[in-house]
Each structure stands twice: as structure tokens, then as C-alpha cells.
Amino acid sequence: MISHCLDYTQAAKAAGRPIVGIMCEYTPRELIMAAGAVPVCLCGGDVDTIVAAHKHLPRNLCPLIKSTYGYLVEGSNPFLEMADLVVAETTCDGKKKMYELMARSKPMHVLELPQKEDDPVAFEHWMSEMKRLKDALEAYFGAKITDAKLRAAIRTMNKERRLRRRLAGLMKADDPPLHGRQLIEFKSSISGIDADLRMYEKAYEEYAGSPGVAGGKRVRVLMTGVPMVHGAEKVLEIIEDSGGTVVAMENCTGLKPILDDVDEKGDPMAAVAKKYFALACSVKTPNTARMESLKRICDEYRPQCVIELVWQACLTYDVESYSVKRLCEDELGVPYLKIETDYSPSDSARIAMRVQALFETVRGVAKA
User: Fold this and answer.
1) Measuring CA to CA, how many Å separate 12 from each of 4, 18, 19, 20, 34?
2) 3-state secondary structure of 262
3) What are 339-366's pLDDT values in tens digits?
4) Spelled out in words, what is the top-level CATH class assigned to the domain 2-145?
5) Model-level pTM?
6) Where are the domains of the chain?
7) CA-CA-CA-CA torsion for 198, 199, 203, 205, nearest 10 degrees?
8) What residues contact residue 113 under an 8 Å CB cut-off, 6+ apart?
9) Each residue of 271-293: pLDDT tens digit?
10) Cα–Cα distance between 346 and 365 in angstroms, integer?
């Protein structure tokens, strides 16, 4: 899927369709699609672009932010270069300030994300942000986002989410038919492509009847924490190289954005706003929805341990890891390990040792 995204985007650009870069799952792809544009994820997962970002950004900053911005400095991300507009969200202070620098060379619309998940006034503000985005897309591209177009985009995205959920659901088996590293490859950086939807269906048909890949001997792992964008799968690979199988990922590149659909009845704008506002990011305070989501995923996927990935300098996930640890160990009764790292492979051996020690503990409990 990833390898065909560039061809798809270039063809769409040549056909006159606008390209909209997005930075986070809080940006509703449905609105962009309803405007006739192509939503493309721009989050950077390449360690090699980070050096270029240091020309303008501090070194003690999240690698995802630096990698993304490094592409801009180098001019090396064709999707970013083609983007007619970038839609960004105020999910952390590092991103907010990076957006100011990016806006010097790229047209940008910033969504202000309210942070109180249970505050009616916060949702009212988010609803107004959705309307502002709709107006901005219409103004930028001379398009009219009608209810009919928005409902069509909602149906497409709901279909994509259902297909991805069904494929991810294969990991609930006692002996899953594929590894977590394989599963994460079934995710495009562009949503709503018909060929990708067919690929989700084909993949499910192929793997649903396949035998398990581990013989039930590998440790079942739930990964949680920060987004693990394409190219930054270091920790996932270490886990599975060490004898684990990542049966579920409760993060923005995993199950989090696909657990719930947009309501296809009633006011489509309100339905889109409600779905995206409910995303359980660590920027929310209190982030009780994430804890409930973890309970739900643990119940369905039955992990033997939880590994939380935190990018260096990601303060919200780093602080929230204390609550996740308590939930796992005190309530869910599963061992927990936090791994704080960046994109560099320099600490891979140390991480592998910690993961292997965790797995020894898990296996010891299973034998007892």
C-alpha cells in the first residue's frame, strides 16, 4: 500500500485534485475527501531527516516532530512538496511551535484541539473548529462540501475502518495467522483508495483460513503509547525478534482511530466532530477514555503483557505512562514495560535485553 501512495498522489495531482497533508488522526479525512482533495499523512519516520531539522529545532524534541520537519528542510518528502495545504492540530507544544516554522513555506490550517474530554463547552469549541476547517477547505479549493458529499466520504471511511478492524481481529486467535509487523503493513498513508479497500478484503480472505505463525509459543503483547509511523517500527521489530507477537496496538497507527465509526445518520458535520473528538490521545485531561479502551482491547486480544512506547520528549505520554502502568498491574493483572527511545538504532540491544527479561517473567508466570 505504502509503495503505491506516491503514484496515486502524483496521478491525482496531475488530474487537478488538491493534496492536503495531515499530521494527526484528529484531522477528519471525511471533510478533506468531501472537498475533492486527497488526504496524505505527513508524519516522519525517517531517522536520517532529523539532522536537517536540528538547523531550526532543538535536539531534545520528539523525533517524530523533527523527522517530519527535516523533510521540509531537505525538500525530500514528495507528498509534502506536492501538498496544497497542510492541516495540523494542537496536540502538543512541540508540534505547535514547529507548525509556525512550517507555515513560513507551506499554506497551513491549524485546528485548535480542546483538551477536556468530558466538557460540553469543549465539544462546542471543537464543533466550531470543524466548521472553520470546512470553510477553509471550500475557500482554498473553490469546492462546496455538501451534506451528500460528506455522507459519501463517511461511508467510505467507515468501510475502511470496518475492513481494518476485521483484519486486526485475526490477531485475537490463540495462534494468530500473521505477525504484528505484517499487520501494520496493511495501512496506507492515504485513506479511501478503492484499491486499498480491495486489498484489505483480499488480505482477510487469505489470512483468515491460514494456520498460526507461532505454534502458540510466542508471548502475546499489547503495544500502547505514541504513534509508530512508517519507518519507525524499531521497537515492534525488537519485540517480535525477541519471541513476542504484537497482537494489538492501542495507538494512533493501530486500533485507536478505527475502533469506532462515524454515525451515518443525522447531521454529518456533528457526527464527524463527535467521532474525532472522542479519540483518546494523551493530550486529553483527564484521559479516561484511553484507560477504558485499554481494558476493552485487553479483554478482546488477551495479551500476556503490555509494552508502552514513548518517544523521547513526548511529555504527555511519558507522564500518562504512570496511570497506564497502574491500570495494567493493579487492575488488569498483566506485566507492564515502558520503553522510552527515539528513532536511532543505538539503544536497540539494551531494549532487546529489557524485552527478553519481560518475556522470561511472563513465561515464568505461565509455568507456575
Assistant:
1) 12, 8, 8, 11, 15
2) coil
3) 999 999 999 999 999 999 999 999 988 7
4) alpha beta
5) 0.97
6) 2-145
7) 20
8) 26, 89, 90, 91, 126, 129, 283
9) 999 999 999 999 999 999 999 99
10) 31
